[in-house]
UniProtKB/TrEMBL annotation:
The keyword Transcription regulation is annotated on this UniProt entry: no
Organism for this UniProt entry: Eudyptula minor
Highest taxon of the lineage: Eukaryota
Record flagged with keyword Cell membrane: no
Keywords carried by this UniProt record: Guanine-nucleotide releasing factor
GO molecular function terms attached to this record: guanyl-nucleotide exchange factor activity
GO cellular component, one term: nucleoplasm
This protein's name: DENN domain-containing protein 2D
């Protein structure tokens, strides 16, 4: 697959590649170990403007970058301008409060070269008395690992309730630790006044392609039947809009939908939480996968948009569809996947979230194995080692008529082309690709 091409160099080594807050082109990301955990930790606070509105502004940034070259400085400024919008995507209708349940969500920024950065956010109410405004702690990283960063944000939140000064040494320790390999643990020493030195263990899941994913989030909100409709639309690279009020629900469910496509990668606009000022993204004629807060539903439905699948994650239903979602996937394979998903649904109480991830992913990987798993035997290798994919022979080799009908559409997608392009380059059969 095309996952780990440019992303793998940490921006510390290549600081000129900082994204422009441009909506995304590629979704799942795989990384090698030993890189930096993160590039920045920023705090975004709400500042009162002269018209009584609140606007999100960065009030703290670690580390501060010195001696940047002119180009790097412009790139960094673009990144720092985009972050507040994504930390408070719900616009500026805020008022001070006494209580606020903290929430965790993530967003994606894409650079011109298609490489991505992820913002992991914890929105919380700082400790204190009386009314105050929530603030967002946002960690910017090239690394896709939601569970791991949620744990880091737990530590940040715990320290925030003591004082901002305690966060700095913890993040410094994290910055000096290498990112662990899949299944491995890194231990960070951290001193907290009055409770002494703590050892914080951060472990990466064994299966690297599932570390940014929580399929349970999807299964809790949508029936297996609807999940297959969504998968069918995503596989043909259509426009998908997800609605929910909570940012955490949106970002978790969209990452899960993108992960259903493994070993293929969503190659178009990908914005798990769309800031209010970018709502016209839904008018794009090109494919997209976006999350929008329920409060903007009327505005979205009023936009002049092309056909799209609109999914309500609160009610667990589809609000708008193209109409052929039932017929896209071969019926026999569709029924097998349905059985598989229903089985996991019934066992939800027994399985850990990692087990659910593995079981669900396996069902969808099997679908691709059964439909296009024979791709490698249809790459013709020349003497100089370059491969050419024989599309016609590949399609003709499929015995089942319904499977062939589906594959003829699927081979025209961007994600299939990118996958084959990679395969044509590498003569060595790669593990996990079959």
């Amino acid at each position: 697959a095309t996952e780990g091409k440019e992303e793998a160099s940490a921006a510390e080594n290549n600081p000129s590649r900082v994204p422009q807050g441009k909506p995304g082109e590629r979704s799942s990301i795989l990384y090698s170990a030993g890189q930096f955990f993160f590039e920045y930790l920023v705090v975004v606070s709400l500042k009162k403007m002269s018209d009584e509105h609140y606007e999100p502004k960065i009030t703290y940034q670690f580390p501060k970058r010195e001696n940047l070259l002119k180009g790097q400085k412009e790139e960094e400024e673009r990144l720092l301008q985009a972050i507040p919008l994504f930390c408070f995507p719900d616009g500026n209708n805020w008022a001070p409060v006494t209580e606020f349940t903290s929430e965790t969500f993530s967003f994606v920024l894409t650079n011109v070269d298609g490489s991505r950065k992820i913002g992991y956010c914890r929105r919380l109410l700082p400790a204190g008395r009386g009314v105050r405004l929530p603030e967002v702690f946002c960690i910017i990283s090239c690394l896709g690992c939601f569970g791991l960063f949620s744990k880091i944000l737990d530590e940040v939140e715990k320290r925030r309730q003591i004082s901002m000064a305690v966060i700095y040494p913890f993040m410094q320790g994290l910055r000096e630790s290498p990112f662990p390999a899949p299944g491995k643990t890194v231990t960070i020493k951290s001193f907290i006044p009055e409770s002494g030195t703590e050892l914080i263990k951060l472990t990466r899941p064994v299966d690297a392609h599932l570390e940014h994913v929580e399929f349970q989030a999807l299964l809790q909100r949508l029936s297996p039947h609807l999940i297959l409709h969504i998968f069918a639309s995503a596989v043909l690279e259509r426009r998908l809009i997800f609605l929910a009020e909570e940012l955490s629900v949106l970002s978790q469910c969209i990452h899960a939908v993108a992960a259903l496509l493994y070993p293929f990668t969503w190659a178009h606009t990908y914005i798990p939480v769309v800031p209010e000022c970018l709502l016209d993204t839904v008018c794009c004629p090109t494919p997209f996968m976006v999350g929008i807060q329920m409060r903007h539903l009327e505005r979205v439905l009023d936009q002049p948009m092309e056909e799209a699948l609109i999914v309500d994650l609160c009610e667990g239903k589809i609000l708008r569809a193209v109409g052929d979602e039932e017929e896209i996937l071969p019926i026999k394979l569709q029924n097998e996947m349905l059985m598989s998903l229903n089985r996991h649904n019934n066992n939800n109480n027994i399985h850990t979230s990692e087990q659910v991830n593995t079981l669900v992913s396996e069902a969808f990987v099997q679908f691709f194995v059964r439909t296009v798993g024979h791709y490698a035997s249809h790459i013709k290798w020349s003497k100089n080692g370059s491969g050419t994919f024989q599309e016609r022979a590949f399609c003709k080799a499929i015995a089942s008529k319904t499977n062939r009908k589906f594959v003829k559409k699927f081979v025209k997608t961007n994600m299939f082309s990118l996958f084959i392009e990679e395969a044509e380059k590498s003569r060595i059969p790669q593990e996990g690709k079959r």
